[in-house]
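Structural prep section.
Before we set up the soaks we want a predicted structure of the protein with zinc ion in place, mainly to decide which crystallisation condition to try first. Input record follows.
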Amino acid sequence: MAVLSSCLGFPRIGANRELKRALESYWNGKSSAGYLLQTASDLRERHWSQIKSAGIDHIPCNDFSLYDQMLDMAVMVGAIPRRYRAIDDPLTQYFAMARGMQDEAQGVDVQAMEMTKWFDTNYHYLVPELEPDQQFTLDASKLINELTEAKSLDIAVRPVVIGPVTFLMLSKTVGDVSTLEFLESLLPVYEELLEILVDNGVEWVQLDEPCLALDLDNDAWEAYRVSLDRLTALVKRPRIMVATYFGPLRENMSLVTQSGCEGLHIDVVRAREQLDQALEQIGSETVLSLGVVDGRNVWRTNLDEAHALIGRAVVELGEERVIVATSCSLLHVPFDLNAEPDLDPELKTWLAFAVQKLDEVKSLAVEAASSSPASDAFTESRQALAVRAVSPRVRDSEVRKRVGEVDESMLRRATPFAERARKQRARFKLPALPTTTIGSFPQTGKVRRARAAWRSGKTADADYLQFVKEETRRCIEKQLELGLDMLVHGEFERNDMVEFFGEQLSGFAFTSNGWVQSYGSRCVKPPVLYGDVSRSRPMTVDIARYAQSLTTVPVKGMITGPVTILQWSFVRDDQPRRDTCMQVALALRGEVMDLEAAGITVIQVDEPAIREGLPLRRDDRDAYLKWAVESFRLTTAGVLDDTQIHTHMCYSEFGDILKAIGEMDADVLSIETSRSRMELLGDFAEQGYPNDVGPGVYDIHSPRVPSVEEMTGLLKRAAKVLPVDRLWVNPDCGLKTRGWPEVEMSLRNMVEAARQVRTELTGASK
Ligand code: GLN
Ligand code: ZN
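Run finished without errors. Recording the tokens verbatim:
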């Protein structure tokens, strides 16, 4: 028997985002539930056929979802929170959980479940809510339906089911109880499910347990032991493939290898070193699935390297005990490279999207036992890699020289914060509790249409520029009228905070169809960072200078930070991420210096993505934080003492990384805090965060206008924890998704709230 191939999951949104369209049109009442379900069924059929015709042996099922796989799992085990239970129609109930629901006629007004990031990806899942008296009951209808569909197409599938421990670890519950306490009551549902799968002709089930790649405490360790014991002890069950991804299992691997599971999948793209460990530890009958084709990035696989890894496994275990696989689900990569007619042809030969990755998996499986693979696929892979390795579009010796010359002094502001703060105070003469915003103002339909017209060539450059200036001028006037102490230009010229910079830097390419699901129907199109990064001309200086020319009140220059640009792109895999980040940082440093030279006195460098780059294992975090902080400092540290550096992050659960945030040494840090009612500021006080902080006082994620009292309340709470003279007043995040009327009212209230608290706490009126 030859080596088998498998794919852990496939993009579900569709080659042309058919699912997105069907969902949105259903939500808007423009099409029926029947149409949505039919679209979903068609997509599954198409994807299965595609995977099958690529020759993949283990084809996933139940990886499809109308919204999110964790939500599906919550429904499958009957974890439907009380507030949704009055909604009778299952589909309506499902989307109410995903998106919330307000329906006066039905008397329903329920909030959505919380959403958060799936490990270190840009995908967001819905967090299951377990009630104190949670009862679990199996509802396998979705999965059974998909099995029936596959059967009618004569396609054998391997259902993907999120394992019980990962499900619980990613859930939340009320009070101080650990969600793992629910394991005993949850396991019977999984046992029942496994039995039903056998009745439905399932041979293998893929039990996704990505939490095995995390640091586990004793309780989690014990939960894994118990759950794998219990499930494997079942008499009637399919063979179990425990799937892990996104990182090494290290000490946790024995949990699987010492259990009675028939298969273990490991991610050897992220953690190649675990192959040896697996070969050493794996049971004498267990199948090892090797994730050698990267499900997280868009690069063409180095087939020879992958083949060498597979070859070692084949020698040790024999062909029948090795499966060649994608590293994780292909959910995180775009659908098909062939849908990119405008991408540079050479660059294209270096890439592989989901469809191409299936072919790579198959080619590797076919050649697994051969000592010198010579198929076309291998030849092409070798050629593409050889070209890429020496391509002048990848390597720019100027950039390398400049990065090589970066020294310690470039990573440090010339003067400590206290002294800079004094100079800045003298320069800006701001009142206590100065008010400002995070950067963007509403991207109205008008703004987006104007940009689209310019992009498609319908509007001349000069006219578009004029339009942007006009919007900027109006925005500055509005802020002056509102009485804000520090202004922004509004970001009307920007589509997206990474794309805008990527398009002006060398080393980035943009796809026309490279969509990846972010959550529900929302997709993002990350740029491809393929080569050495440099900046040929200023990117934001003209608009910043123009905005500042309209007023004597300081207007912040606004750029996106290096870590965020890295984190929200598909990053080259031919050098360490750190090196790429330093190149981006050096290019941005040039921008910061140009802004300063143009008379911009305050510069904000946004880093909303610093946290999501954090490695899953504690042991790996310091190394990441070190270069993340260094790259921010390389970007910002070249300015004069009295140039004020701001940064912004879209969250405030800093806890264990607060020290690193402090080391970034921004003069002012604005963060999200209004939803947690300032509670998270406690960390800042306890850990002695040294510089200025702007805790968001207004939640921009909702159109609600916060009252003056609400915001004075929040400000006073903040002032109890942190010194008033280090506090700023601002919203939680940028205002681009909001409408002008609510923004105006909210900011008016915010300025008034700041004024009141200022008077009360400092006795000053302005
Ligand atoms: N300056 C950006 C804005 O206001 C920051 C956005 C973000 O952090 N996500 O839109
Ligand atoms: Zn933000």
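Observations: The chain has 27 helices and 25 strands.
Flagged for discussion at group meeting.
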